[in-house]
Protein 1
Amino acid sequence: MKRWFVWMLGIVTLIAVPLALAQKGDAVAGKAVYQKKCATCHELSGAPKAAIAKMMKVEMRDLSSKEVQAKSDEELSRNITQGTGKMVPVKGLSDADLQNLIAYLRSLKKPQ
Ligand code: HEC
């Protein structure tokens, strides 16, 4: 009886842990979305693409910078789905895409 319980606990943990991690967003999956949807204007490192900034006549901040990283996940999501300043909203992102993107953006943060 006891051994059965330990087995069940093990199985539940094996299922629950990846699920919990998936909910927080996956930076690797986020990078793939970023490459498709963001990399025309933002470098993979988060740095602005100089040609785009020049063309749009805007000072773009580095997405890895303190200022951008200080924004909450909600604010970043809003910037992406509703646009911010001269950035137009990015369409066609699922909730999971968005969470993965946020995880990727957080992974760009430079160690202080
Ligand atoms: C067509 C070009 C373009 C695309 C595509 C684009 N962006 Fe932007 N993004 C910009 C520009 C330009 C700004 C600066 C806007 C301003 O400050 O007026 C910006 C600003 C931002 C900001 C706010 C930075 C700050 O200063 O607070 C975030 C966050 C951001 N982009 C994330 C993304 C993500 C994530 C994607 C992909 C899902 C994406 N962007 C796609 C052009 C783009």
Protein 2
Amino acid sequence: MPFDAVRLADAAAATGPDVVLAFAADAANAAVMRQALLVRAVETSLLDLFGKGKLHGTIHTCVGQELTGVTIGANMHRDDFITSNHRCHGHFIAATGNWRGLIDEIVGNVDGVCAGIGSSQHLYARNFMSNGQQGGLLPVAAGIALDRKHRGSDGIAISFMGEGTLGEGIFYETMNVDSLWSLPHLIVLENNFYSQSTPQAQSVAGSIAGRAAAFGLTVRESSTWNPAELATTAAAAMRDVRETGRPGFLVVRTYRLNPHSKGDDSRDAEELAWFGARDPLNVVLASNNAHRAHYEDLLREVEDHIQISLTKPRLSPTRYFTDKLPRTGSSGWTKVEAASHDTRYVQQ
Ligand SMILES: Cc1ncc(C[n+]2csc(CCOP(=O)(O)OP(=O)(O)O)c2C)c(N)n1
């Protein structure tokens, strides 16, 4: 196993299946478990759809990492706002619950949450915004946190990022402002130990937690292999930011079971199998009949919606440009013909 995997293995092995199964069997955690399984069902079905050539562009699935987003979502207040990155589907479902609108968006039809224009990475809702530019929404979240502070709201801004984004200067600029201006901003770093195909050992020096601590953020750490501890730690991190009005940093160790986006996976097969066997949702699905039956229902429900979604119309460019954003004519903008529905840009 590569160096990174060995470090991860230490973290995963420290817990074991009993910890996960006890969490899943507790009725108090049913909502979190069911939403994590919903995210997995959606992600698995979308990847399958992509493989069949039915999706344009690309997708980044969060299979293996679901518990981070849903645990944060479970503690959200009405005025909280999430910003997310390219791997955003689970975060979106956790914030909004609107998985059908997400599927419509990614399929590209008019009922999508952004009318099919934003697709997988560019999502927007009342309490959610995502963007594929690494770190690009961190300062936006700081601005949202400033708004909550000025309005005297109890809302906080929450940003998801990956450890591969630690190389972006805007991360440090945002923490600096967060701390100087005392902003209620929680940055959640999902450490899956790879930045696309680069192992963390080749790209991140020193201490991740130490970087945030140096700017005066309150730092907490947890992992998806211990869902109970993750639930307690995430709730405490969000409560701290809410109550103190100060920024926080939560590092969640986890593992991405699927490729970075689609076929781009150079990780060791043995390593993938090792983590697949220890993945919390896989552990639950293998041993908890009620959750497995629910997951099978979810897969059917998601598949039914996908079939409906594929038949829905796309947003007409004419309608978009004339009704929503009148940019034609004297404005100098020209109308662009819509591409054929069967065109896949990734193949061009
Ligand atoms: C500013 C910028 N540079 C490069 C990319 C291309 N890119 C997309 S995802 C990615 C790796 C991101 O790794 P990480 O932040 O750890 O998130 P993960 O994919 O592991 O969830 C890269 C380099 C980008 N989207 N934005």
Protein 3
Amino acid sequence: MPNKDYYDILGVSKSASQDDIKSAYRKLAKLYHPDLHPNDPECAQKFKEINEAYEVLGDSNKRSNYDQFGSASGNPNDFFGGRGGFGQGGFGSGQFSGFEDIFDIFSSFGGAGRKTQVQVAGEDITVNINLSFKEAVFGCEKTIKVTKLEKCDSCKGTGAKNGKEYETCPDCHGSGQARYTQNSIFGQIVNVGPCKRCNATGKIIKTKCPDCNGKGNTKVQQEIKIKIPAGIDNGQVITMRGKGHASTHNGPNGDLLINVAVDSHEILVRDGYNLLLDLPIPFTTAYLGGKVKIPTTEGFYELSIPALTQPNTVFKLRNKGIKYLQKEVYGDLIVTVRIEMPKDISKYEKELVKKLDDSISLSSYKKFKTYQDKLSKLDE
Ligand SMILES: [Zn+2]
Ligand SMILES: [Zn+2]
């Protein structure tokens, strides 16, 4: 099994300075950051590799071991832990490598803000809300009730009485992460994982906080006001960062995810930011011209149908659609005319139309005329 070439992965030469390695790593990490490529396993893999490479080359001791022995610890067997799929951490602090280093990248992308390895964010809360068509078009404010875990006030989230009755975990020295050595056919594997002694909290509670029974957080009912932006559509999700459950491991709060469902309009059909209207009109209106009342987001509107309007003619009413999310731009209202024939005809109407028919010359019907001409040239 050949070792990966970490220099290759970071695209630097073997003689690159630590600064060069750092800047190469930053560039690549920025490029392949999973926040920018959600659901892209290839990028995720690449991001992992980049971190793995920097974990070693970014540390001058590990780098010199790697240069000499082809492994970060000087023990070639260590590599199998990291890459063969036997455990997560591999060598040293494996999967969490370099995280602090790219924290500025996280924040510059407005990322999840998950700071360091020992912090585990609280759980997200998901709620569903239903909006009327109008509420979605113009935006609105909604109040929802959630039951969530909040940091316990009396112990400041520590779970220890008065927030003081605890000591730093001797196994992980407060980091919440511990090294576990494991024997395998490849030799010894060092894994880094959540500390079992303190359940990754980094502390051992001497006396439990009586208010939260040592949990560090309590369940509360909360009313949360949500501003729904104009233009939101069915199926979209609003994320309120940090409005989810409090972390049980002193990390940031989870997020509040709001699934939005929007009622459909009686007549108009939404297509992105455009509105579609299939408009039936009497054939006489198409022939003679006239006005037809149509609905818009801003009330009714009189649409002028010119005389001699052909079937399926499309009228585009600019900016009569839906406002774009977070932008002062509007979609269009697209009206397609469907000409309707009456379902019955009286004797009187028949006579009238007969006269009409006699009066219209064939040349008035462009398509029909062309068709007739072609027909007359056919052999049979
Ligand atoms: Zn511990
Ligand atoms: Zn408490």
